[in-house]
Amino acid sequence: MRRVATAVRVVIALVVLAVVTATLAWAFQRRLVYLPSGAPGTPPEQLLDGGSTVRVHTEDGLELAAWYAPATALATGTTVLVLPGNAGSRAVRVPLARALSASGFDVLLLDYRGYGGNPGSATEEGLAADARAAHRHLVTERGVDPVRLVLFGESLGAAVATRLAVERPVGGLVLRSPFTSLADMAAVHYPFLPARALLRDRFPVRETVRSVTVPTIVVAGGADEIVPTAQSRAVADAAGAPYVEVPEARHNDSELGHGPQVVDAVRQVSG
Fold this sequence. Notes:
Structural class: alpha/beta
Pfam families: Hydrolase_4
InterPro entries: AB_hydrolase_fold, Hydrolase_4
Organism: Pseudonocardia xinjiangensis
Protein name: Alpha/beta hydrolase
GO molecular function: hydrolase activity
């Protein structure tokens, strides 16, 4: 009987622990999902030729700071909206902006709500609203022809870019290190949690990308330790898009962040 009673207590303790863990994960999940950084310490004028700060206004009343960089080479007439991943701020994407500008592209580096010193807190719907606001700024205020607008989404930003490409007219889409869905990523990094039942935000990239009708390219790192290359390849397959793998590149390596294969992908979808 004592053994039975001990076994029962162990089971009860494990159940309680599982319930507590799941409850905490549900309550604090967005702190695990979104990892914002503070405002950049250096203004864009000191980092980018012709760089400037612009203000992007969202449909729910937020004002977001973003950086604009004009082409520094023979202009292609194409603008690239960079929708960033889940770490750093727009300052971290300066090398990408420089590489694109040097190839003749105008560039807008967006920071989402809660990122880069911007107000608000990140959610799936909030990031989608931020992307729509950036699109509206470029098309309405700067007069960018949507056909000459390329979306560049990196990691988490690939999910945001894919949704925007379905919701608004654009000319092309580059997805760098995309995952198939947030639940699939959670299963990789938090295998002990029932992520599919707990997640508030979903980011169903593989499902959404099937509805994208513009030229699309997927770029991934062969040694990506954050987003499994199998997930990026699955997104490319779902999109019917070319898949470009940068050999031995990890998730945050410079070659994958702003290397020649990345810039060439933008060039290809821009026509």
